[in-house]
Every structure is written in C-alpha cells, then in structure tokens.
Design brief:
Radius of gyration: 20 Å
Strand content: under 5%
Distance between the termini: 56 Å
Number of helices: 8
InterPro entries: DedA_domain, VTT_dom
GO cellular component, one term: plasma membrane
Shape: flat
Number of strands: 0
Structural class: mainly alpha
Pfam families: VTT_dom (PF09335)
Transmembrane segments: 12-32, 44-64, 84-105, 126-147, 159-177
Keywords: Membrane, Transmembrane, Transmembrane helix
Largest sheet: none
C-alpha cells in the first residue's frame, strides 16, 4: 500500500475517497497505519478525502432512499426488514442515530436510505451527515495512525502472521463445530 501511495500520489487519495463512498473502515485503518509506519501518507489529506467520500456516499443513499425507496421496498421484501429496523432506530433516536449509524457495521448505506425513506429533511440530514462523516474519518484515521505507531514497521510481520493464524483458527474451529452440530441433529420424521 505504501508503494501504491508513493507511485500514484493524489490519485491514491481519490481512491480512498471512492472506497469511503461505499464503506471503507478497514481500508482507512490500514492506509492510516501504513502511513504512520512509512510516512508515505499524509493523515490530514487522507482524513479529508475519506470525509468527503463518506459524506457523498451517504448523501447519495439518502437521495436514492427518498426517491426510489417505496418502490424498492415493494419489489424486495427481504430488504424491508433491514429498512424497518433502521427506520425504527431513526424514529427512536433521531439526531443521535444519524450521528452514529456509520459506526454500526453493515447498516451504513441502509441507514442513510432509511433516513430518506422516512422523510427526514434534506438540509438536516446533510448537516448531521457532514458532522458524522468528519467524526468517522477523524476517528478511523487516528485509530489507524495510533495502531501503526504502536506496531511499528519492525513488528508488522508478527502482527500480520498472528492475525492470519487467528483467522485460520476461527475458521477451522467454526467448521469443526458446525460439522459436529450437524452430525448430532436427528431428522424429524
């Protein structure tokens, strides 16, 4: 990633913005950590680019939810449950929901669409979304930067190898557990 940033410069920050348009927590953390270790990435430009990308992504989902939401809900009933959950949280928590939904994994895009579908005002959503995108960008860039400084380039391999082994252990344990569980299940006649 450091070579990518060194080779492409400003285009790499544009890619970070595009990535944050859709999601991007892992990408922002990784880019920031590597930037901290190598000095190839400016954390302030990274923060600004992912802030704008995240903001524009959620604004897009909001507008799509407002404009096409009712038709999509009729067409895809499975999406209705997720949308109902996000709308319920919006109605219950209002402003706090808009300021925090991007920190809840897996519902960011749905939540922005739910805000549009629920009829939240465009100006209100845009203002709250801008603030929330800034907090999100700042916190993930700072967390990645701190993580990069904590790990340091000399210990990076050890953390990557340890993480890979941990993922492998979880996958193997889950596979073993699911096989044992399915072997114990007795079919009902």
């Amino acid at each position: 990633m450091a070579e990518f940033w060194a080779e492409y410069g400003a285009a790499a920050y544009l890619l970070a913005a595009v990535w944050a348009f859709f999601e991007g927590e892992t990408f922002v953390l990784a880019a920031s950590a590597i930037g901290s270790m190598t000095g190839a990435i400016d954390p302030f430009i990274l923060m600004g680019s992912v802030w704008i990308g995240s903001f524009l992504g959620d604004q897009t989902w909001f507008i799509l939810g407002r404009r096409y939401g009712p038709r999509v809900m009729k067409r895809y009933p499975k999406a209705e449950a997720k949308m109902a959950s996000a709308t319920s949280m919006l109605l219950q928590y209002g402003t706090l929901f808009v300021l925090t939904f991007r920190f809840l994994y897996g519902i960011r895009n749905v939540a922005a669409a739910a805000c549009g579908l629920a009829g939240m005002g465009q100006l209100r959503f845009a203002l709250l979304n801008f603030i929330a995108a800034g907090v999100w960008a700042g916190s993930f860039v700072a967390a990645g930067w701190y993580l990069g400084a904590l790990i340091g380039p000399e210990r990076l391999f050890h953390f990557i190898a340890g993480g890979a082994l941990l993922i492998l252990a979880v996958v193997l344990f889950r596979r073993f557990y699911l096989r044992r569980r399915s072997a114990r299940t007795v079919p009902v006649v």
